[in-house]
Each structure stands twice: as structure tokens, then as C-alpha cells.
Amino acid sequence: MWVLWSPYFLKLSFAATNPCHLYPLALEIGRLGALGEYYSGYPAWKLPHSGDVRSHLQTHSLRTLVVYGLLKYAPEGFRPASRSLFVWQDRGFDRWVGQSLKPCDDLHGIPGQCLHAFRAARAAGIRTVLNHATGPAREWVRIMAPEYDRAGLRLADVCPYDETYFEREDEEYALADLHCAASTVVRDQLAAQGVPESRIWVVPYGADRGIFRPAPGREVSEFRIVFAGQLTMRKGIKTVLDALQIADHPEWEAHFHGTQLPESAGDFRAYIGATPVRLHGAVSQAALATAFQEGSVLVLPSLEEGFGLVVPQALSCGMPVIVSDRTGAKDLIRHRENGSMVPVGDPAALGAELQWWSENRRRVEGSFDWTGPARTLIALSARAQR
Length: 386
Known about the structure:
7-stranded parallel sheet, alpha/beta
């Protein structure tokens, strides 16, 4: 007797303390009928559209609420270091997932917070998938150490990783049946660390089309450069500022959206370019969408960037994007069609592309929502089941 088989009989489960990229992906997986459980360290009321996956949502949020409450309200001298708080949060969450795991085909976990969950999954015959927004932690340290030396800062003061973390990550790698990478950049870093490419899936990220969409008629006359993300050295802030100085255009505007960390303050103070620079701080998703709808080009010349969620968000609003060749979302870019790619740490190249886009202004088109990534992941999971 023949049985009709469909990949949508698959049940894919996800576990993450922070919604990050996994929650919107899980929402779309759920819409397509392939969601097992979503284990969340955030409470349900903090998750947008949680009603769409209400019957699949399992939460364990007490530690998360304690951590963010302490970070927000307790003076720094009266609370543990933020690194210790997040370790306490992630490990408690990981143990809870391992104890609460329900049957499914695949369990996706985030590096640093899925050791116990993966042990439980392997014991239950569930396939384990380590889901990487970034490359291996050791690679992050290797890339960023010279930049912190340049700025006269100690990497150890800000690095979220230590030997204990590296050992835990190594154990998680050993327990992972497969690795799901955000980009070819992350895939290549994993392969360089010894992970066979046959065990690496590449699934890009998408944008919420309910928020990030074109808005005809909202363009402005000036050439408006937009940066979105934390203002850190990792994001290539110095490259942006140096490029603006080289370009020397007082009629341009540069708008930075995101929290400024102290490590980038010196680079902003040293800026003497003609282009006005405006710092907007952290903004809502709706305000960010407006900035993308009204902006001329997004710049993300990161030194280290596994993907860069703002890239599909900007593209979905019709704004072209310039990225470095070390930014994972370069996979979405078609050079001088919907953006540009420049060598990492090359302000002259970035300035040249800004000049080109100022002379060839256009809105771009394309579908960059979560449907494509969700379908890709379901297809890869189905193929691996055969």
C-alpha cells in the first residue's frame, strides 16, 4: 500500500532565550504547518503575534525577566556583571528545554544555550540542528582583536566569550547532527573550523512585510545615507565615517539609528567630514521602516556579521544596501542592481559606491520576507529525512 508523504508532516522545534531570528522563522514554519514547539525564554506577552503559535509556544521566562530587570533598574555596582547574568539566564533555560522536550523531527538550538537540550534530543532520537546567526565564537575573537587594539581598548573587557564558553560550544558542536547557517559567510567559517560542508545548511533571514514595505511618495530630495544597528566597532563604524570624509559631500546626510556603545565614541569625536552626521539612538521597528522608506541607501560595512537582519528589512522597503564582503547578507545583494558589495575595511571603496548611488538613485524591488527561508528550511529537513 502506497502512503502519500509530504514534507509538511515534519515537525520542527526551536529553542531560544531571545526571539532573535528564530521566532519570526518559526511563525512562518507554523503558518506552513510544520512547527513542533517553540521554546522561549521570553514571556508570551513579549512576543509579537504569539497567538499564531499559541498552541506550540512553551515559555520559561523568569530568569530572563530577572536579568533584564536588574540590567534596567539596578546600579552597575549592585548587580552581577552582565556576562554572568546572561550565562545564568541561558543555562537555566537550556536545562528547562532538556527537561521539557516534546517529540519532533528536528530541534534547532542556539550556540551557548542548547547543551542539555541536545543531550535530551539525542537520547529521544530527535535530530539536533545548531542554528548559527554568527560564525564560531573563536572566529569572532580572531577578527575583532586587531580592531580593539587599534582603538586602545581591551577585548577582554567587552568579549562575551571565555574558555568556559568555548568548551561548552565545542560540546554542542559534537552533539549537533547538522548546522543551519545564516549565510555563506557563516558556512565558510564553520567549514574552516572542521564542520563538513555536507552537514551545513544555508538558510537566510527575512523581513516582516507587515512593517517593512515600500511607501511610494515618501522619498526625500537629499541623498540620505542610513546606518542601522548598534554603533560598535564590529559594524564598521570607522569605515563609514572615513568614507564620508573621503567623499566630502556637504549636501549628503548620514543618519545613524541604534544604541551607541562607548567603544565607538572616539571615532565619532574624530570625524571631521563635510557630510552632517545625525545620531538617532535606538528606534522602534516602525520608525526604522520609515527611515528605510525615506532613505537613499543603507550602509553595513561590518568587520564581522553573520547576516545583518537590517539588510532584508531595507530591501523590503525598496532601499538599496551597501555591505562589506564579510557581511553575511551579501548573499542577497546583486552588485549595482539592489546594492553594492565592497571589500571589508575599505573606506575608499565604500565612498566610491556611495558616490555611484548618489548619481544613480533608485528604489529596488524583490521579495525578502520569511516565506522563502521557511520553505527552504522545510525542504532541507525533508530531504535529510529520506
